[in-house]
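Write out the bound-state structure for zinc ion.
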Amino acid sequence: VNSESNAQLKPVFAILKERGALPNNTVAAHLLREGAPPKIVDLHTPVPEDSKLEALPATHPDALAVIRHSSAHVMADAVQRLFPGTKVAFGPATDNGFYYDYDKPGGPFTDEDLRLIEKKMAEIVSADLRFTRENVSPEQAREILQKTNETYKLEHLERLVAQGEEISLYKHGEWVDLCEGPHVPSTRYLKAFQLTMVAGAYWRGVETNPMLQRIYGTAFADKKALEDYLKQLEEAKKRDHRKLGKELELVTFHPWAPASPFFLPRGAAIYNALIEYVRKLYVRFDYIEVITPQIFDRELFVTSGHLPAYAENMFLAASKENVESVCEHLAAMHEKDGGKLEAKEVEKALLDGIRFGVKPMNCPAHALMFGSTRRSYRELPMRVADFGRLHRFERSGVTQGLTRVRTFCQDDGHIFCALDQVQSEIESFVDLVYAVYKDFEFSEVRVVIATRPDVRIGADEIWDKSERALIDGVEAKGLKYEIAPGEGAFYGPKIEFHLKDAIGRSWQLGTMQADFNMAERFDLSYVGVDNAQHRPVALHRAILGSIERFFGVLIEHVSGSFPTWLAPEQITLLTVSEKFDDHAKAVLAKLKAAGIRAVADLSGDKLGAKIRVARNMRIPYRAVVGEKEVESGGLSISSRDENKDLGMMSLDEVIAKLGVEGVPPSLRAS
Ligand SMILES: [Zn+2]
Ligand SMILES: [Zn+2]
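---
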C-alpha cells in the first residue's frame, strides 16, 4: 500500500481492534483515500498505523465480493483435490456469486461432481485455514506455477509482468493462487455457499482458445441470505416472462423479425390497456399527444447528432431510387478510376446514397415540431407525449425476450420549458410516476440522481443550475435519493427511478433527463416576457419506459396474474352443460354492454376442465352458469386472487364490482 505517511505499518485487524472498531462479523476493510474511492483490503494487510479504515461487515456488498472470490479459491482447491491434473484459469466474484474456470482431463463436470466438490469445500472451510498474501518476484511466481504445471496461470503471469504489475500469491492451507486479493482472513468465514451450474467457457473468452469448464456458485454472509437468494432464483424461473408469455398466449416471435415481438390478441389487449392508462393520466397532467413519422431524411439525425454518434444502433432505410443513384455513382467512379474502387469509397457512396433513417427516439421529431412555428413563453411548459414506434439495432447476443428488443414504443414525452420551470416540472413528474408505480403495486422506489460526467457539453453554470433543480425538485417531494456522480448524460443530469418487483429484484423504469443540447442543435427558441428570444430546456421523460420491456417486467412482477383493470378477460362464464348456453350468451351480452371484458366457455368440456383452463389463463373471475343461476338470474362467482368462492351474486352486483376493479386505483373516483 502506497502512502506518504511515515507511520509504522501494522495489520488492518490490529489497528481496527486497537480503535475498538472491529465488530465480530468483519471480513475485510475499506482503506479510505483522499480523492479516490475506498480500497478494499484484507484484514492481514499491513498499512500505516494512522490510515483511515472502516471495517466491512459480511453483509456489505464489497464484503460479499470478498467472500465470493474467497469461495472461488476454496472451490478450486476442492476441485484439484478431487480431480488431480485439473488446471485452473480465472476465478472472479460476479454480481451474484462467483465462478472458476477449469481445464479438466476426462470430460466435463457432472451434477454429482458439484455435490462432491461442495462437500470437499465444507471440509476445507471447517479446517479454518488462514488466507495469507505474499508479494513475490516474477521468478518466484514462475517457479511455483511451473512446479504445479498451471499453464494458464503462467500465461497470465507473463502478462502481468509485461504490464509491470506487482505479483502476489494467496495461499490457504497448501493451495496457492496467483491473485491480487483481497480475501477473508480464514476459510471459516465462508458460511454459506452453493455451486449452481457448469458451462463451457473459452480461455480469455476467445473462441479460438481452448474450451474450459466454468463452475458457477454463489455465496452469502449467512445461510438465511443464501436460502432467500436461491428461493428468489427459483421463483424467477417460474415467472420468466418468456415462459409465461408463451403459456398465457401473450407474445410470439419469428426468426424473420429477430428480437421483434408479435403481440397475440391477449397480449395486445394488455398492451393497449397500458397505453390507454397512461393516456388517461396525461389528461390529468396536462400533456398533449402527437403522432410523428417513422422514417426521416437522414439530415434530421445529422442535426440531432444521432449520426454518426448513434449510427450502429440505427436502422437506415433506402428507396429503390436511392439504390439506383448509388449504383450510377459507383459505376461512374469505377470508370474514372480505371476499375479500382476502394472499400471506403464504396461505403461513403452507400451512406450518402441511403437517404433515410428509421427513428430510434422521438426527441428529434419533437424538436422539429417545436421549431415549426414562433413560440411564446405563454406556451411553456409544453408537454409533448408520443407513443411512436421506435427501432434500435441491438446485437443478437444481447437481445432477450421482451426486455431487450429491436422494436418498441415508449410512454415517451418531452417537456419544453424555461430553466426556472424545471423544478416544478420535476415535482409534477414525481407525482405522476408515484401514482403509476402505486397502481402496479411496486412498493419500493429508489431515486438516483446522476450528475455531470467528465465528458460533457454546456457551461458549468448551467450544470450547477440544472443539477440543483433536479435535487430541489426531488427534495421538495420529500423523497430520499442517492447521487450517482458522473453518471449523467453528456447533455444533462438525470433522475432515475429504480423499482423492486414482487420477488425483490430491482429494475430501472422511469427516467427524467434535463437537456440543454437539443434546443441548441435545432436552434429552438421562444419569445420571453422581455420580448427577447430564449432557448428552452428540454426534459426527456418516460414513466414505464419501453412498453415492451415494462410488459416483460410486469409479467414477472404479477406472475402472469394481471390486475383486473389490465386482464385481457376480466370474467369468464362457464356453463355446466349446453342446456345453459343461451342463458350464458344473454348474460355475456349484458356484461359486454356494461364495458366488461367478458368471455364464455361454451365448449363441450366438463366444468372441471373449464375451470382449469380459466385458472391457467389467470382470469380474475369465473362465473358458473347452471340450473341454480338460471333460476335466480345471478352468477356463482369465484375469484382468482382470493382463491375462493364469492357465492351467488346478482348480475348488477357483478357489473358494479368489475366496474370498480376495471379502473386503475389512481383513476377510481374516490
Ligand atoms: Zn484470489
Ligand atoms: Zn427524448
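---
DSSP finds 21 helices and 33 strands in the chain.
The CA atoms of residues 447 and 481 lie 5 Å apart.
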